[in-house]
Structure formats: structure tokens, C-alpha cells
Design goal:
Shape: elongated
Oligomer: single chain
Number of domains: 1
Number of helices: 7
Largest sheet: none
Helix content: over 70%
Number of strands: 0
Length: 161
């Protein structure tokens, strides 16, 4: 747990560590969103599965929403760093399944799995920032994380135009 010491900028290795913590996972959802933006037409045409288009579009969100409550407990019971790493691996595995899916059902399963992992990464990042900052520093680092997330989102939007 962090102590309440006053620091105005990144003066130590610990401060740099906190800054890097706020920038660990904001770009991970961006490739997933780009895949959805650019790949739906190709996926539907390749698998001839127009009827599964809604599942492709909401699979990522459903996976994330289904794990909101269950992810609270592991971050309390286990070391948050390792739960965060497991969630990152889950996100990457889901994205890999999407990338190599032989059929539309595997694509949907990959989307759901990636959504679960991304949501766990988000909660883990919030937990890690909260555990490693003081109450005075916390708003700065939490808002910095949101700035990084929206910056990555905008960069992916610009790249897909």
C-alpha cells in the first residue's frame, strides 16, 4: 500500500513505475475494435454466416459484461499482478482464436474470450493503480489511464479511415 507523500512529478523510479502502470493496457482493445471495423464483411463472406453477424458484433461486449462480477473476487483473493497477467493471456488467446478461426463459431468464441480478458485487464489495472498510489495521487493516475485509452481508441479510428 502506498503512503501519503507529496510528489509533484516523476522524481523516482517508483513514480515512473506508476506512470507506466497507467499505460499498460490501453492499446489492447484497439486492435480488437479495428478487427471488428474492418473485418466483419470479410468474416461474413468467408463463412457465409450473415445470420451470425449480431453475435460477432456483441460477442466481445457480452464476454466482458459476463465477467464484471466474477473478476472482483480473484483480485481480492490472489496477487493482483498475476490475475492481471492471466487476464492479459486470456485476451491474447481470444484474439488469436479470432485470427485463426476455421469457422464463425470459433470466431464468436474467440470474441467472447477476448472480451472477458480485456474486462479483467481493465479491472486489474484499476486495482493495481489503486493499490500502488496514495489517495492524493490516485485521481491523477486513474484519469491518465483514461486519457491513454481514448488516445489509443482515436488512433485506431484514424488508422482505419
Amino acid at each position: 500500500m502506498a503512503t501519503d507523500s507529496d510528489s509533484s512529478g516523476p522524481n523516482s523510479l517508483r513514480d515512473v513505475e506508476k506512470l507506466s502502470l497507467s499505460d499498460t493496457s490501453p492499446v489492447s482493445p484497439a486492435p480488437e475494435k479495428q478487427r471488428h471495423i474492418t473485418g466483419f464483411r470479410k468474416i461474413v463472406n468467408q463463412f457465409n454466416a450473415v445470420e451470425d453477424l449480431p453475435w460477432l458484433s456483441v460477442g466481445f461486449v457480452i464476454g466482458g459484461m459476463a465477467m464484471i462480477l466474477p473478476f472482483g473476487k480473484p483480485y481480492v483473493l490472489f496477487d493482483a499482478k498475476w490475475v492481471f497477467i492471466v487476464c492479459t493471456i486470456m485476451f491474447m488467446a481470444g484474439s488469436a482464436i479470432c485470427g485463426g478461426a476455421p469457422n464463425v463459431n470459433a470466431e464468436i468464441v474467440g470474441c467472447v474470450m477476448a472480451g472477458e480478458g480485456e474486462n479483467g485487464m481493465y479491472f486489474g489495472l484499476m486495482a493495481l493503480i489503486s493499490m500502488n498510489t496514495t489517495t492524493k495521487e490516485r485521481p491523477k493516475y486513474l484519469s491518465l489511464r483514461q486519457v491513454h485509452f481514448y488516445q489509443a481508441d482515436e488512433q485506431m479510428r484514424v488508422l482505419t479511415i
